[in-house]
Amino acid sequence: MQRIACNSLPKTFLLVSISALLFLQTLKAQEGDPKLTEVYSPVPKIVTPGKTCSDAPSDAIILFDGSNLDQWVSVNDSTSPARWKVANQVMTVEKNAGNIRTKQSFLDYQLHIEWKVPENITGSGQARGNSGVFLASTGPGDDGYEMQVLDCYNNTTYVNGQTAAIYKQGIPLANACRKPGEWQSYDIIWTAPRFNEDGSVRTPAHVTAFHNGVLVQNNFELQGQTRYIGKPYYKVHGPCPIKLQAHGDKSEPLSFRNIWIRPL
User: Fold this and answer.
1) Which of 152, 151, 132 minimizes the C-alpha distance to 142?
2) In a domain, 205, yes or no
3) Are the CB atoms for 220 and 166 separated by under 8 Å?
4) Which domain holds residue 215?
5) Is the pTM of this model over 0.85?
6) pLDDT at res. 20
7) What are the C-alpha distances in Å from 246 to residues 6, 110, 153, 237?
8) In the sheet where 144-149 sits, what is the strand order?
9) Residue 74: helix, strand or coil by DSSP?
10) From CA 157, how far away is CA 128, in angstroms rounded?
């Protein structure tokens, strides 16, 4: 058995006592002064919420309120107005007119958008109510980062291309589709990628999304732009418009309404 010298005990006891005293004094100071852990700035701005969760809050930018497409232009020609149909407070895809995009560009944001597959929808797989919300349109056609819009109510397809997928990258956490003829909603938090001066990726894009109130993407990290063929990749960009897709399938066209955005 190891023997401890008697003359070392007072020193050891003294060190332990001092440490315990310091700890108790720190604990007492924290318990006695709550201001030590109180923060008073920066003060969050006041935002008046909408009457319902789908209504735009006071600081939102209204992208479509049912009256016109003044906030949108054609992707094929940014000098031309968007030529989708507007009637009864909704816009309906005009497939021959091509994709449309917002006039404004955005970086990080909160987006609310509602869409509906027509009750008389036909087709199957990807050819049934296909469209897409491009969270950042980085060029013509389908360049950018797409969140899939599709009728997956009793309709199957590849899972990384079904409703609420980050197209061919992020499989949704759930299938929350309503049946055709019923309005559906996406609520999306988009964090845009950031790039270094040499063009390399400093931080990748991330997305969190709810489909009809159900979490379907949870801070998902994108590997680059979404692509129909080939692997995703990044190209340098800054703030970008939001794009809606006029898909070329032969099924009946979708409709959209109540689109608003909060830049973050």
Assistant:
1) 132
2) yes
3) yes
4) 61-263
5) yes
6) 72
7) 87, 23, 20, 23
8) 72-74, 100-102, 243-244, 131-137, 144-149
9) strand
10) 10
List, in sequence order, every residue forming a beta bridge with 81; answer none if it has no partner: 73
Q: Measure the CA–CA gap between 140 and 120, rounded to whole angstroms.
A: 31
Give per-residue pLDDT as tens, 4-42. 444 555 666 556 667 777 776 776 666 778 888 899 999
Residue 30 shares a structural domain with residue 120: no
Could you give the number of structural domains in the chain?
2
Determine which helix (DSSP H) or strand (DSSP E) holds 30, and give its type and residue range. Answer: helix 9-32
Shared domain for 151 and 25, answered yes or no, is no
Q: Of 61, 69, 121, which Cα lies nearest the Cα of 91?
A: 69
The tally of CA atoms less than 13 A away on the side-chain side of residue 195 is 13
Distance (Å, whole) CA 31 – CA 15: 24
pLDDT tens by residue, 137-158: 999 999 999 999 999 999 999 9
